């Protein structure tokens, strides 16, 4: 890049789980604050209401988040907690491997 060309910000997909009838507002604010702290751009916010019914590999909304990485439209999936993907370590790790194969990573938006 030429010296005065601004570097584009790192882009992430925010993935949220809707576990009841309410929108996950607190989790969204947590992820937005985390992304802002690192100057990351949120390229997509995904709110999934099938989290309790299906494992990660069977959730179209989670697959859409992964597709953004595969399409080079984001570099990471930002989540409020590891359980958002799966409370089962094996399921989480399998999905994390797929994200890494797409040259991305999963980031938990921890409080600072």
Task: Describe the protein.
Helix content is 33%, strand content 21%. It is of the alpha/beta class and 112 residues long. The longest helix is centred in the first third of the chain and has 13 residues, at 25-37.
Q: How many angstroms does the end-to-end distance come to?
A: 33 Å
Which percent range fits the helix content? Answer: 25-40%
The percent range for strand residues is: 15-25%
Task: Give the structural class.
Answer: alpha/beta
Global outline: globular
In total, the number of strands is: 4
Order of helices and strands: EHEHEHE
Based on CA atoms alone, the radius of gyration comes out at 14 Å
Mean pLDDT: 90
Number of helices: 3
Residue ranges: pLDDT <50 for 5 or more in a row?
A: none
Strand order of the largest sheet: 2-1-3-4
Key terms:
globular, four-stranded parallel beta sheet, 112 residues, alpha/beta, 3 helices
What is the secondary structure topology, with strand pairs?
Elements (H helix, E strand, L loop, with lengths): L10 E7 L7 H13 L3 E8 L11 H11 L5 E4 L9 H13 L3 E4 L4
Parallel strand pairs: 1-2, 1-3, 3-4
